[in-house]
Amino acid sequence: MDILYLPELGQFALILALVMACVQALLPLVGSMTRQPLWLAYAQPAAWAQFALLSVSLVFLGISFLVDDFSVAYVANNSNSALPWFYKLSAVWGAHEGSLLLWLWILAGWTFAVSFSRGLPAEVLARVLAVLGFVSIGMLLFVILTSNPFDRYLPRIPSDGADLNPLLQDPGLIFHPPLLYMGYVGFAVTFAFALASLWSGKLDTAWARWSRPWTSVAWAFLTCGIALGSWWAYYELGWGGWWFWDPVENASLLPWLLGTALMHSLAVTEKRGLFKSWTVLLAIATFSTSLMGFFLVRSGVLNSVHAFANDPDRGLFLLMLLGVTIGISLLVYALRVPTLKARASYSLISKDVFLLANNVILVVATLTVLLGTVYPLIMDALGLGKISVGPPYFNTLFVPLMLLLGVFMGLGPVSDWKSMRLDKLRKKIWLSGAISLLLGFILLPWVYDGSWSIWVALGLTLFFWVVTTSLRDIWEASRGKKGWRGISRSRWGMFGGHVGAALIVLGVTMVSNYGEERDVRMAIGEPVTIKGYEFTLIGLGEREGPNFSADTATIEMRDRNGRLHRTLTPEKRNYHVRGMPMTQVSIDWGPLKDIYVAMGEPLAEDAYAMRIHYKPFVRWIWWGAFIAGLAAILAVTDRRYKVRVPEESGVKS
Amino acid sequence: MKRALLFLPLIIFIGLGIFLYKGLSMDPSARDSALLNKPLPDFVLPRLDNADLKVSGEDLLGEVFLLNVWGSWCPTCYEEHDQLIRLAEEGVPVVGLNYKDERPKAFRYLAQQGNPYTLNLFEPDGVRALAFDLGVYGAPETFLIDKEGIVRYHLAGEITPQLVNATILPEVRKWQNAQ
């Protein structure tokens, strides 16, 4: 077999995967209508076959990149013979067609994982797999009909490729898309569970228990994926920002916000049997926003720095796909969701209500971001002109909402289910409240900066509030019979998730209020002092990379006592094939601050314009996100998800 | 009644879908200007680099130039900046209109990105001057002004390399050669 036929085989595997997806979707559907258990049993092997076939397809595309097969259009457009091998591999998902294939492969992977879940009745499993099969059919059709990654340039084969976009030639971008897609697509599983339960008409607490681990894992991946993207933007784009309210960033934030709401609402539904129809709607909406983000990014309806290659046919196809998937699921929801009121009661001061408040705030935040993102489009469609909605809109509305959310983030863990006496709640929170106000609102802003500003004070108060209430909750849990060892992993997960969120608040507060940026002229041997550090340009040079040449600078950074603290080596690269200049920043990083140096323009033979950023606590934004993500994974390993529970049980008061 | 309420998410989604569908057939960056083939509105604005120096419409006339509305807050401006530099290198005068920005941020932007502008006007938030009269909704927007001060071309949105080659440079040359 000649290696040159791999693209055709990959394409063939893709088509077979579509066939398998049809089997996986249709046979269980017909089987459950005609009550044929045998037909239901087809779903599982079809899911395995689909995963195997898509793996073949993805691997063959990867090999085409590795062997520089520039007859494949997608390879020729996104790779180059001089590209290092690991970027050749990550170029597989560097543009539209390949990233779709990755999306599909991940969906098949999730389906594969679901097909092994224990303790799930065969009929439920078949229905869940069938729904996932339908999602897969739609996306496979989209790839095969409009965005084939295996298209060839024949007979005239390009001698070399157009290279991967230099912005994407970075370790962060190797992992960012797969993590993000794991998150987006992971919500398809929750979505499938929700639709399967609507389909069967059995919307019980067991459904919530099955959905919870999948939701948490998907949320963990999405959180880490977004954080990685933000980190990448921070050091790779060279302007030191970590969030820009770009439509594509917003597209990832929408499912994240709804997914966060969903995780909490699933907890209420599982523990108390409340808010069932609301939780189902959230499950549908979370995956719908994932899909809608997909559409917004790839159809060209919005102006964005992330824009993929746009093609109106693709946009129309995607919109139809979106309409069918979301439209049908919302229709099923409207027709099938039970309207009976849950019998469980709850009072105003209770975990139930605090979690409901969390949900309301998160949904309002989602709508705020959604409105800001599609507003330009709506105005345009109504003929009211072209506008762009910028950070001021989002910051003005989003920050207060998150502050409010933080209040409930502290109340949630320490409160009781069902109902709670006010004096009991007061007893549990007075110390946290006092510490937060004293340290966060009054003392620390002064200690840190010598001045006081309301935003810093609010941010820090919230940080202490969430941390101390979480500590209080975990301390109380440790007073049970088994002590610290008796604390369940899901409780540790909640603790980690909330502390992670608090750390993000800390990072955002500090860097937004105390961050500084300075543009300086640096000449060789002339020191520049910024924030107590002395920066001296030691030398300028040049170096050749595999596919770029770079101007380099060596800067010594000394502390107050004149001791050498760190040598910084920023670069300015010019990537040969695309002729694109890129700044490569050099960062002296630490838990309390980042010093961030980027090269600007040359000013003279021995002088350069440099941008030096002082970014206090900025790392905690990403560390907090990773901690929260890991905590969600930890919660999933809780033993109660492993124990096989009979279907009727699971309702606790 | 309760059941009817459950259709609300579907209705909202359908509404959104209609806008998305209309969005597909629209180019987010294309818009006809009401000012096309009309004279540039009168204005007096300070220079970005020197608040004491005022520039009026009269000062700019006499040659064909591009008027580019930008701000350091505008992500797309970063995107199109290379094209402005290229236009400047091609010898096309580009006058910047720094819009709803702050001076330090604008200076930083120019220091980082390079400065293709022959001159920058400064119209901060709250001032209703040239950008307002031109009907600017956001940044970036670019206008081509001919020797007589008539607006001959207008682009709302990003200047792409294709636009430079296929439209902007030919338009500039056309009006430069016009008598």
Could you give the distance between the termini of chain B?
71 Å
| Known CATH architecture of chain B | 3-Layer(aba) Sandwich
Estimate nothing, just give the exact number of structural domains of chain B. 1
Helix content of chain A: 55-70%
Write up what this structure looks like.
The complex is a heterodimer of chains A (about 650) and B (about 180). Among the domains of chain A are: about 1-165; about 515-620, Tick-borne Encephalitis virus Glycoprotein, domain 1 (Sandwich). Chain A contains 18 helices and ten strands. Chain A has helices at about 5-35, 35-40, 45-65, 75-80, 85-90, 95-115, 120-145, 170-200, 205-235, 245-270, 275-300, 310-335, 350-380, 390-415, 420-450, 455-475, 490-515, 620-635; strands spanning about 515-525, 530, 535-545, 550-560, 565-570, 570-575, 580-585, 585-590, 595-605, 605-615. In chain A, β8 and β9 (about 595-605) form a beta hairpin. Mean pLDDT of chain A is about 90; it is low at about 645-653. Chain B is of the alpha/beta class. Chain B has seven helices and seven strands, in the order ααββαβαβαβαββα. Chain B has helices at about 1-5, 10-25, 55-60, 75-90, 105-115, 130-135, 160-175; strands at about 45, 55, 65-70, 95-100, 120-125, 140-145, 150-155. Chain B has a five-stranded mixed sheet with strand order 5-4-3-6-7, covered by helices on one side. A two-stranded antiparallel ribbon of chain B has the order 1-2. The N and C termini of chain B lie far apart (about 70 Å). The interface of A and B includes residues 284, 312, 315 and 323 of A.
